[in-house]
Design a protein that fits this description.
Length: about 425
């Protein structure tokens, strides 16, 4: 089969990360270490997963880069924006996710990654108080500065292409407003009027990226690109977008375990999820307005897998609660507890307990890599707008809620979507056979 529709991954790929905290510094350090042969990018689908293409006598199992032209790790150039001025080396050391021995071999490269001034509004993340920010800029001025940052980075580092990835904190919840977020004209009008209530700083990053021909990935639960105005911009600029919220710990478990209950036709009485974490993300989420954004994202997973309308005897009126607790001693080592009350034959109750002791950034780093490489691939394939095949990596997959589209949250269905998109881009036929 020929890779006829995908442009080759020629030249350098710039990855500009918004936020240079624990997740970003772990991601960047891991890539730099992996390309020196000093670490392995475990957890990355693009680096490890093998999938079947073809059927019968033509059946074979290949890595993604044997099917489609994915950018090589050696061709990546990193840059970032952050509210704190610490470079990537200092950030990796401060985050205390990785051991010193896993950072020092790439110290020189990390020190060169110095964050540009962030487009930041303290009202959207009240627990952050950095001074490496654009001072006194309106929302539209923020867009203009960010666009210039992208152009300058591309030129200075000789990049052919750039991807912008949001790996910063969760912003205060911004509910989609039909008067601001439903058309591009209204959004631009709000930006130019410096409407701070309806235009989050993250929207400035997304607008700047798409306008500069850079795909945009939203790794937090922010509304940012999950609004019709941004869909319109993505269509206008012919750029792919994806979001929202990296699916790392508890929601990964939920999207994989809930289908077991569903396919086995067991009933659900309640699902209680709670987390403790102590990194910067936990600090920001300790603010109720920011937690609301995360809660909307985490609650949406279950309701589209165990659907009351499809099985009223089994899934009517189950109780679903999500909690996140800031607990500084844990730092990046997040713990997720799930208590699941199910019922079976003749209504008899049973319980399932899941305790996931995760490392938040260790789980998120490979997602960052895969999302950047795959959205770059999608752009070279001429795909634009919401990339639903990337929902495998995301907690609250984007969907067109204006026409009541239901997102796919079932992990195994998402995996099929991911594989079929890669098959199609590689010139193979999509199918749903179990490998």
């Amino acid at each position: 089969m020929n890779q006829t529709d995908v442009k080759k991954a020629e030249g350098k790929l710039g990855i500009l990360v918004v936020g240079l905290g624990a997740v970003s510094s772990t991601f960047i350090t891991g890539v730099l270490m992996a390309r020196k042969g000093l670490a392995k990018p475990v957890g990355s689908m693009t680096q490890y997963d093998i999938m079947r293409v073809g059927e019968g006598a033509d059946k074979k199992y290949l890595h993604y880069n044997q099917i489609v032209p994915i950018a090589d790790l050696n061709d990546i150039e990193f840059g970032s924006w952050d509210v704190y001025p610490a470079n990537a080396f200092e950030s990796a050391m401060n985050a205390e996710v990785l051991k010193e021995k896993d950072i020092l071999p790439v110290k020189d490269e990390l020190e060169k990654i110095v964050p540009m001034k962030a487009a930041f509004d303290h009202n959207y993340a009240k627990r952050l108080d950095g001074d490496n920010i654009m001072q006194g800029k309106t929302r539209w001025e923020m867009v203009e500065v960010l666009r210039e940052d992208i152009r300058n980075f591309k030129k200075e580092h000789g990049c052919n292409r750039v991807v912008v990835l949001w790996a910063a904190s969760t912003e205060v919840y911004v509910a989609p407003d039909k008067n601001v977020h439903y058309t591009l004209a209204d959004l631009e009008k709000a930006m130019k009027a410096d409407d701070k209530e309806h235009v989050a700083p993250s929207m400035c990053y997304a607008y700047a990226a798409l306008t500069e021909g850079a795909p945009f990935v939203m790794g937090a639960p922010n509304t940012t690109v999950d609004i019709p105005a941004m869909w319109e911009l993505a269509e206008k600029t012919k750029m792919p977008i994806a979001g929202k919220d990296f699916k790392t710990g508890q929601t990964l478990v939920k999207s994989g375990f809930a289908p077991i209950i569903g396919v086995r036709c067991l009933g659900l009485a309640g699902w209680f999820s709670t987390n403790i974490l102590g990194n910067r993300d936990g600090l920001v989420l300790d603010e109720p307005a920011n937690f609301r954004t995360k809660e909307v994202s985490k609650l949406s997973t279950l309701e589209s897998i165990l659907v009351p309308e499809n099985q009223p005897d089994l899934y009517t009126d189950y109780y679903h609660k999500v909690r996140i607790n800031y607990y500084p001693p844990r730092n990046d080592n997040k713990e997720g507890w799930d208590n699941i009350d199910i019922f079976g034959w003749m209504g008899y109750p049973m319980q399932i307990k899941i305790n996931f002791l995760c490392r938040d950034s260790i789980l998120a780093a490979p997602l960052c890599l895969d999302l950047c490489l795959l959205i770059d691939l999608a752009a070279r394939n001429g795909r634009y707008g919401t990339q639903r095949f990337l929902s495998f990596f995301l907690k609250s997959p984007m969907h067109d809620y204006t026409v009541d589209e239901v997102p796919v949250n079932n992990l195994f269905q998402q995996y099929t979507m991911l594989k079929n998109a890669i098959r199609e881009m590689g010139g193979y036929k999509a199918d749903e056979l179990i490998d």
